[in-house]
Design goal:
S-adenosyl-L-methionine, menaquinone biosynthesis, binds S-adenosylmethionine, UbiE/COQ5_MeTrFase_CS, alpha/beta, Rossmann fold, Demethylmenaquinone methyltransferase, demethylmenaquinone methyltransferase activity, 8 helices
Length: about 250
């Protein structure tokens, strides 16, 4: 059964995820950085570095699609690649509104455009982007394979896809420490700050149920990506997955 944020509602996972992110959007950035001790920022930077070094010579994509862009932090990190255009898409209007404000304040709204859009029905033509990126988004998809397949469709031949997502540490004592933290401390802080009692219970539950490591790579390859690579971060608390679309 799908892991959803609001178990007592009979709406779809997609609707519940959008509702949850709308509800926590004012506190999302703050909670992200507090709950991860700021490591989420380093993970996004590392993922962009891996995108750059995914090809020889270093890859500098001119058009980038940031799926599940939320408040746009991954899109902002991708500016380091000096692209011509970054489009961020998300299903939560609340997250997008905060992201658009952020882009204006930083004076980058002509490069980063934030649009409403569903990862499983991307409003773009085939082969449109040099790179497709997504951080902490794929775990929330209603249908993971469908989302990844659509990401593959809009990547141009020769293009690269980078996925950054939470994963499950497997080694003692990180596995036990992380499990304790994510089941007790994280939901407590999340509930108090965001006032949404479900959102930060859904987070560890959805991470645990998510196929990570080699299991993710299998689905990534089924979606069409080749030369795939898994890079575990911080004892496996998060992972980067690189995939290529053959030229
Ligand atoms: C945890 S946030 C990540 C935001 C941002 N990428 C970051 O690194 O902070 C997950 C985002 O995925 C979005 N999302 C979930 N399912 C989606 C879908 N099917 N299509 C587009 N966005 C989706 C949510 O609305 C939310 O903004």
């Amino acid at each position: 059964m799908a892991v959803v944020p609001y178990k007592d509602k009979d709406t779809s996972k997609r609707e519940q995820v959008a509702e949850m992110f709308d509800s926590i959007s004012p506190k999302y950035d703050l909670l992200n950085h507090v709950l991860s001790g700021g490591i989420d920022i380093l993970w996004r930077k590392r993922a962009i570095r891996e995108l750059r070094s995914s090809k020889t010579p270093a890859y500098s994509p001119k058009t980038i699609l940031d799926i599940a862009t939320g408040t746009g932090d991954f899109a902002l990190e991708a500016l380091a690649l000096k692209p011509r255009k970054i489009i961020g898409v998300d299903i939560s209007e609340g997250m997008l509104a905060i992201g658009r404000d952020k882009m204006k304040k930083r004076g980058v709204e002509s490069i980063i455009e934030m649009r409403s859009g569903d990862s499983e029905r991307l409003p773009f033509t085939d082969n449109e982007f040099d790179a497709v990126i997504v951080s902490f988004g794929v775990r929330n998809f209603e249908n993971l394979l469908k989302g990844l397949t659509d990401m593959y469709r809009v990547t141009r031949p020769g293009g690269v896809c980078v996925v950054l997502e939470f994963s499950n540490p497997r080694q003692f004592p990180f596995k036990q420490l992380y499990s304790f933290y994510s089941r007790t401390i994280l939901p407590l802080i999340g509930r108090v700050v965001s006032k949404d009692s479900s959102a930060y219970t859904y987070l560890p539950e959805s991470v645990q149920a998510f196929p990570d490591g080699p299991d993710f790579l299998r689905i990534y390859e089924t979606a069409g990506f080749t030369n795939t690579k898994w890079i575990p971060l911080t004892f496996g608390v998060a992972s980067i997955y690189i995939g290529h679309k053959l030229a």
